[in-house]
Design goal:
heterodimer; A: mainly alpha; 9 helices; about 0% strand; B: alpha/beta; 4-stranded parallel β-sheet; 4 strands; about 15% strand
Chain lengths: ~220, ~130
């Protein structure tokens, strides 16, 4: 993303670019996400998340937020209202908790990682899922761990985010053989094995969007 | 009381079924159901508004269908004032049967705990009948 610099921390423009890129890729992958959800759920994940993220982008165009916390709060409130399905309260709570952790100033890598983990904690509190339940948590938790580890290792934010996105994609792929223990898919029991989890798939898109927009400079 | 469902027709029909028990009696039952374009889904902001509308200071019992209805109702609690939130019970009772029983005791002036207890035992008559 030309023109954006993360040298002074992630500001509202950087995070807005992240949200827009996530919305764009959710829209691009909408039918794929819904197809994954039709195999093991209620066939609405792509449609719902696309509706919610489109509304989030429309909201930030109508009322551009002034700082990182206000931006992510607005995205979270839009998602809890407009998505309709389980990804509404889950992604909505994720962004609301990130907003609560970020504050008003540009965030450096460590602050962003802390906010991402606060978002993860919010998803756990809301969905009560555990690792291996075949949910978005199976992509998000490894991403947070990889980001923390890379930053602790002294890596710059672009490499750390790339490591987080790679961990999210591996976590997503690892949901295929799992038996779902949460959500509509859990009604299927053993029949849910052999399918990739739609929530983990959209979470991998969220991390890929972060690499595309927050890692440049 | 507040009814939370993915489907507006489902919620409205459940309320109609419950109100059939109480001709001429007024019990505050608010509905937060469906997406704003008329589709299936739940909306935490709408649920929060419905709780506020139903709250007259004596407490609110919320009945939900499944999945995102439960998580959206939990999310909605975060948007309430502390004082209101303390008066709200999210009931694990069955939506239709729980609502019928709860509305009947609520119309008799039962407090929040009695209403919530009645919602929770909503399946008991059916279970007793079918053995």
């Amino acid at each position: 993303m030309g023109g954006l610099s993360v040298a002074d921390g992630l500001d509202v423009a950087n995070l807005q670019a992240w949200i827009r890129e996530f919305a764009r890729t959710v829209s691009e992958h909408r039918d794929e996400l819904t197809a994954l959800d039709s195999a093991i759920g209620d066939a609405d994940h792509g449609t719902n998340l696309d509706r919610g993220m489109s509304a989030a982008v429309a909201a930030l165009e109508a009322a551009p937020p002034a700082d990182p916390a206000a931006l992510l709060k607005q995205v979270g409130m839009t998602l809890v209202s407009k998505v309709g399905g389980a990804s509404g309260p889950l992604y909505g709570t994720f962004f609301l908790r990130m907003a609560g952790a970020l504050g008003n100033d540009p965030a450096d890598g460590e602050a962003f990682a802390r906010a991402l983990r606060a978002g993860l904690d919010g998803v756990v509190a809301r969905g009560k899922a555990e690792p291996g339940d075949k949910t978005m948590l199976d992509a998000l938790a490894p991403a947070c761990d990889a980001l923390d580890a890379a930053l602790a290792d002294g890596q710059p934010l672009d490499l750390a985010l790339a490591a987080a996105a790679e961990a999210a994609r591996r976590g997503r792929d690892a949901t295929v053989p799992l038996v779902a223990r949460k959500g509509r898919a859990s009604y299927l029991g053993e029949r849910s094995a052999g399918h990739q989890d739609p929530g983990a798939t959209s979470t991998a898109l969220l991390l890929d969007a972060a690499v595309a927009t927050l890692a440049g400079g | 009381m507040v009814v939370v469902s993915h489907s507006r027709p489902l919620a409205d029909a459940a309320v109609a079924l419950a109100r059939q028990m109480l001709p001429g009696t007024e019990v505050a039952v608010e509905v937060a159901a469906g997406t704003d374009d008329g589709g299936l889904g739940t909306d935490a902001v709408a649920i929060s508004a419905a709780i506020t509308a139903a709250d007259s200071g004596d407490g609110v019992v919320v009945l939900m269908d499944l999945g995102s209805a439960v998580m959206s109702a939990e999310t909605a609690l975060e948007f309430l004032d502390d004082e209101v939130r303390d008066r709200v019970v999210l009931s694990p009772g069955p939506l239709v049967e729980g609502l019928v029983g709860a509305v009947v005791v609520a119309s008799g002036g039962a407090d929040r705990e009695r209403v919530a207890a009645e919602a929770l035992r909503g399946l008991a008559p059916k279970q007793a009948h079918l053995g």
